[in-house]
């Protein structure tokens, strides 16, 4: 995956899974080490899936033009408009169009929603004692802040 | 003599691994492990070849991404193509799908067996009384019992109450779990090793009797000598660690059993140009299913309790079965509506969400095919009748959810409101076209791709599970099932494989004793 494709996918995952003002889900994809996750996903997923994800990443860049007739790329929208566009596509009567955002949702949630800290905040217990391998150690992306670290 | 599990990292520095046994079994899931249990206890030497890894309970994780990567086939992304894209769920590890299924145990309904007997000639080999005998033993050895109160959990209790309110017939699921701790992690592999999946039951039992398991090793080629199956050539490859290992060459003195599932077994036959040319890989049948979510005022906390602990077969004769679906957050997130902040707020409420599902005894026939480049291609497309059954199923699921006390129900069907609060709102489902693309279905429970029958003209294997035209090769997994069952098939796969293995053991021991007496016979004077 090329650098700019990876950046696009990061933005799509961030628009899929955003932080909310609910204390049980305050962390969005960008706070969850999404770049490290994308690297691991593209390395581990079956070739067909990884290729499909790349193709769909390109298609989504053109989606604002096709959906709203606006000459702007997905990356050119603000955060709320990106999420709204993804929702808009899921309401399409064309099956392949409404499956496009579902593919991103599946890929993003599969890894990011499995993080123990995120699950713990929702109340799930017990959770894994350690982060999954992709979220540990070096590489790009930030480490997930723990609830205790955020308290004043 | 105790056997061993050998994986790629154990033999990475070997040029070649060779071994020999009386019987070589491809696949360590319900069919393969059960055959190994029967054959080793008959005194035969057995080798199991498993494409996936052996992951002990202590090394399992609850996050689905790691689980998918390690123990689910194609990382959970295996799909069938039709008008809709349908995920096909299978395990790929020691224990096969039994390691990651919901531990639901059913016997084959007698009416299904009757069609097998009358329409497909299965009665030549299978007798229902024989199946019953094996079911009894399986129940005992795999600790099958209804989900107890202590680990019922709120989600299962909600469905139990709703079924009673609606006057439907329902029951606690009979599960193959010994002293369940209610971790709700059946789909990730039981972290407490309580589920009596094959990796926790018959594989260790066969190991105790000397069986060897070659894991992270894909069977590639059937070795044929003097017109009969004589062994298997495989290739060690650990996908998770990115390790390539040596070639495995195992000699089978008596028989080779193919028990790699209704997807992998026909692919192996096709790769080796074996089996009925037209039928192998055809007639793929399944139980496609979908689920609806309900949001409750009181906590549901589906992370405690039996993953799938309650079911209703009230409408089984309409080809549908209802059950609770324990859904990890990662998968629930995909099923819940919204993106961005709206999804986050929905996920924050996850503790108040329950999932009930319906599985359909579909009439659709699909196909498993090896492409010219050697890749797998699965085609499966629901019939109009199947889609109508799904519509009725979704309607009833919503009714059930509301009867359980859900504040709102999220049917997840394109063309219906995102959220409903009264059953009238879901009536519109019947006005929708008979189009599978309106639903989010998954397909599990796969059957029929190397079907059993009397003659080589209309089937791939004979009533004894032996491949027509090639002595010594048997197929004992659900690919030989002539039809789908309408209930969870693990027990029936075990039972059919058990009976086939008994017969193989009998023949092998007979051959062995003949060979032994010939060896012991005094030489005739020349």
Describe the structure.
The complex is a heterodimer of chains A (152) and B (526). Chain A is mainly α and 152 residues long. Chain A has helices spanning 3-16, 34-44, 47-68, 79-90, 95-112, 116-122, 147-150. The N and C termini of chain A lie far apart (40 Å). Chain B has 12 helices and 21 strands. Chain B has 526 residues and is α+β, with helices and mostly antiparallel strands. In chain B, the strands form 5 sheets. In chain B, strands 1, 2, 3, 9, 10, 11, 12 and 21 form an 8-stranded mixed β-sheet that branches. The chains are: A mainly alpha (152), B alpha+beta (526). The A-B interface holds A 15-20, 22, 24-25, 28, 44-46, 48-49, 79-80, 82-84, 86-87, 90, 95, 98-99, 101-102, 105-106, 109-111, 113-116, 119, 122-128, 132-134 and B 61-66, 68-69, 74-77, 83-85, 183, 240, 301, 303, 328-331, 333-334, 338-345, 347-351, 414, 437.
Fold blueprint:
The complex is a heterodimer of chains A (152) and B (526).
Chain A lengths: L2 H14 L17 H11 L2 H22 L10 H12 L4 H18 L3 H7 L24 H4 L2
Helix pairs in contact in A: 1-2, 1-3, 1-4, 4-5
Chain B lengths: L3 E3 L1 H4 L4 E11 L3 H12 L4 E4 L14 H8 L7 E3 L3 E3 L22 H11 L7 H14 L2 E3 L6 H14 L4 E2 L1 E3 L25 H7 L3 E3 L2 E9 L2 E11 L4 E16 L2 H11 L13 E11 L14 E3 L7 E5 L4 H7 L4 H9 L4 E8 L6 E4 L5 E4 L4 H20 L4 E3 L31 E6 L25 E3 L14 H31 L6
Parallel strand pairs in B: 1-9, 2-3, 2-12, 3-9, 12-21
Antiparallel strand pairs in B: 4-5, 6-8, 7-14, 10-11, 11-12, 13-16, 13-19, 13-20, 14-15, 15-16, 17-18
């Amino acid at each position: 995956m090329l650098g700019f494709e990876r950046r696009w996918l990061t933005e799509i995952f961030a628009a899929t899974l955003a932080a909310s003002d609910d204390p049980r889900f305050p962390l969005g994809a960008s706070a969850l080490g999404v770049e490290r996750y994308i690297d691991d996903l593209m390395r581990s997923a079956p070739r067909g899936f990884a290729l499909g994800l790349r193709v769909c990443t390109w298609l989504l860049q053109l989606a604002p033009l096709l959906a709203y007739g606006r000459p702007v790329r997905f990356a050119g929208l603000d955060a709320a408009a990106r999420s709204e566009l993804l929702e808009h596509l899921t309401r399409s009567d064309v099956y392949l169009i409404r499956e496009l955002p579902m593919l991103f949702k599946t890929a993003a949630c599969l890894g990011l929603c499995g993080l123990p800290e995120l699950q713990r905040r929702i109340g799930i217990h017990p959770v894994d004692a350690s982060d999954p391998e992709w979220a540990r150690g070096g590489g790009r992306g930030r480490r997930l802040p723990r609830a205790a670290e955020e308290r004043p | 003599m105790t056997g061993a599990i050998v994986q790629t990292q154990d033999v990475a520095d070997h040029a070649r691994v060779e071994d020999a046994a009386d019987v070589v079994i491809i696949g360590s899931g319900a069919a393969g492990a059960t055959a190994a249990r029967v054959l080793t206890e008959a005194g035969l030497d057995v080798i199991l070849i498993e494409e996936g890894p052996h992951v002990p309970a202590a090394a399992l994780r609850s996050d689905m991404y790691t689980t998918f990567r390690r123990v689910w086939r194609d990382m959970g992304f295996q799909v069938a193509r039709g008008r809709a894209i349908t995920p096909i769920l299978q395990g790929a590890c020691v224990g096969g799908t039994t390691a990651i299924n919901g531990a639901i145990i059913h016997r084959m309904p007698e009416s299904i067996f009757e069609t097998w007997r009358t329409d497909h000639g299965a009665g030549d080999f299978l007798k229902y009384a024989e199946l019953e005998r094996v079911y009894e033993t399986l129940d005992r050895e795999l600790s099958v019992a209804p989900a107890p109160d202590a680990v019922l959990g709120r989600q299962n209790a909600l469905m139990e109450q709703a079924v009673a309110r609606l006057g439907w017939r329902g029951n606690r699921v009979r599960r193959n779990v010994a002293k369940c701790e209610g971790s709700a992690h059946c789909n990730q592999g039981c972290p407490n090793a309580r589920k009596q999946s094959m990796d926790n039951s018959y594989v260790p039992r066969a190991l105790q009797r000397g069986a060897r398991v070659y894991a992270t090793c894909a069977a590639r080629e059937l070795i044929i000598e003097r017109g009969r199956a004589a062994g298997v050539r495989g290739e060690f490859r650990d996908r998770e660690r990115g390790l390539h290992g040596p070639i495995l060459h195992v000699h089978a003195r008596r028989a080779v059993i193919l028990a790699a599932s209704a997807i992998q077994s026909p692919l192996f036959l096709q790769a080796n140009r074996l089996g009925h040319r037209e039928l192998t890989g055809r007639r793929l049948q399944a139980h496609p299913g979908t689920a609806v979510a309900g949001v409750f005022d009181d906590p549901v906390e589906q992370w405690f309790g039996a993953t799938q602990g309650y079911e209703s077969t009230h409408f089984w004769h309409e080809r549908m079965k209802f059950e609770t679906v324990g859904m990890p957050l990662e998968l629930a997130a995909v099923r819940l509506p919204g993106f961005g902040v709206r999804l986050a707020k929905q996920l924050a409420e996850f503790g108040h969400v329950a999932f009930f599902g319906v599985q359909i005894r579909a009439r659709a026939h699909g196909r498993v095919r090896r492409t010219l480049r050697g890749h797998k291609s699965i085609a499966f497309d629901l019939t109009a009748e199947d889609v109508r059954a799904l519509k009725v199923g979704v309607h009833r699921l919503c009714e059930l959810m509301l009867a359980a006390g859900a504040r709102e129900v999220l049917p997840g069907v394109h063309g219906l409101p995102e959220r409903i609060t009264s059953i009238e709102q879901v009536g519109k489902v019947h006005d929708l076209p008979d189009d599978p693309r309106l639903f989010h279905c998954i397909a599990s429970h796969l059957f029929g791709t190397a079907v059993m029958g009397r003659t080589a003209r209309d089937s791939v294997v004979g009533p004894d599970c032996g491949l027509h035209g090639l002595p010594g090769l048997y197929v004992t997994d659900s690919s030989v099932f002539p039809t789908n069952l309408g209930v969870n098939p693990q027990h029936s796969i075990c039972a059919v494989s058990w009976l086939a293995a008994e017969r193989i053991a009998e023949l092998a021991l007979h051959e062995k004793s003949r060979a032994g007496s010939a060896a012991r016979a005094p030489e005739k004077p020349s």
